[in-house]
Amino acid sequence: MLSRRIFVLRHCCFKQGIVHCLDRCQLRGPKISCDWGRHWIRPRIKALRSMACLLSIVLPFGSPADRHARETVVSGRVVMASPGQSRSRVTTIAAGFCHCLALKADGTVLCWGDNSMGQCSPPAGLRDVAAIAGGALHSLALRSNGTVVVWGAKGQTNMPPDLTNVVAVATGSFDNVVLRAGGGITAWRQDSSSPTLTPAGPSNVVTIASGGEHYLALHSGGEVSAWGDNTFGEAAVPSGMSSVRAVAAGAAHNLVLLSDGTVKAWGDDSYGEVSNVPKVSNVTAIAAGGCHCLALLSNGTVLAWGCDKDGESTVPEGLNRVVAVAAGSSHSLALRADGTIVAWGDNSHGQTNVPSTHKIDDGGMER
């Protein structure tokens, strides 16, 4: 049985393109767990417990959710460009499994980290981008005309035809979810032509989020709906959840930011993702990674909790003036008010090697 499980684990790691994955896996009772990507291989080979790579939720100005998009950040991932900013300034950050994306004010995209499937190679001439998202082995860009561009594994092969009027995009491991004008949701799997199930008739949706194999929708009234995999209760929204202003989905856990500045969580609590939520009330943004969490405070500093095996929850000393945060599998990003980026955590694929024009040292000081 052990040899069979190891074979399946190798196959799954190869399928996802996760280098070094096997070295970080171990038996835990009746199953094998892999802390590299927070996925689980069960003896019956029921499924690959994919890590969320992780949503980057975006809402361009002028969408039905305009009032949410004008806030400092949206769902802990995005800060939109402000009038008068330098066109070379980074305005948006996103984290994939082992790669990162940054959107500049001129509508171009900067990528770094794992590029094994071309996920860090945007199509030549890609411009007019309003929002970005990073998946396991692919990346998405929402253009200002409401169309979506995908690159990396499978590229645009499986994208639904006539995908227009999109106002927000999100991606988990291999699932892509988009919100269209009028509140309709469309989803598809990047690694398969099979459609991804979506809830019947969601209404008044203003924000979407995609985790490992589950999804969240924030409604205009502050309510949250969820669907998809519920192995760890990640798709079971706690009763009475209301007054939500932002959502973030991790591999198998979720965070919500309430209107009073506090954070609630549910789902997998293997590393304290749920039980160790800081008891503060000045949070302005949230981000959920593979098995760690980030919270941006109103004073521009960042709190982190959950798994810290690669230092992803060890915030660099002196980090301040942060306006947005993003979380990947085992790495974290922060965008500062001056448009520079701080990265920490796992660097196995260069995901914390921020390109020189935006590089920050480990102490959070500009070079």
Description of the molecule:
This protein has a three-stranded antiparallel beta sheet, with helices on one face. It has a three-stranded antiparallel beta sheet with strand order 4-5-6, with no helix packed on it. The chain has a three-stranded antiparallel beta sheet with strand order 7-8-9, with no helix packed on it. It has two helices and 24 strands. The protein is mainly β. The N terminus and C terminus are likely disordered. A hairpin with a 3-residue loop joins strand 22 and strand 23. It is 5% helix and 35% strand.
Quaternary structure classification: single chain
The strands making up the biggest β-sheet line up spatially as 1-2-3
Strand fraction equals 35-45%
The percent of residues in helical segments reads under 10%
The largest sheet, given as strand count, sense and whether it forms a barrel, is:
3 strands, antiparallel
Q: For the record, give the distance between the C-alpha atoms at the N and C termini, rounded to a whole number.
A: 52 Å
| Strands, total number | 24
Q: Looking at the structure, what is the overall shape?
A: globular
Rounded radius of gyration (Å) = 18 Å
Category from helices, strands and their pairing: mainly beta
Mean pLDDT: 78
Number of helices: 2
User: How are helices and strands ordered from N to C?
Assistant: HEEEHEEEEEEEEEEEEEEEEEEEEE
Given as residue ranges, the uncertain stretches (5+ residues, pLDDT < 50) are 1-84, 359-367
Provide the fold topology.
Layout: H1 2-16, E1 25-28, E2 31-34, E3 39-41, H2 66-69, E4 90-95, E5 99-104, E6 109-113, E7 129-134, E8 138-143, E9 148-152, E10 166-171, E11 175-180, E12 185-189, E13 205-210, E14 214-219, E15 224-228, E16 244-249, E17 253-258, E18 263-267, E19 283-288, E20 292-297, E21 302-306, E22 322-327, E23 331-336, E24 341-345
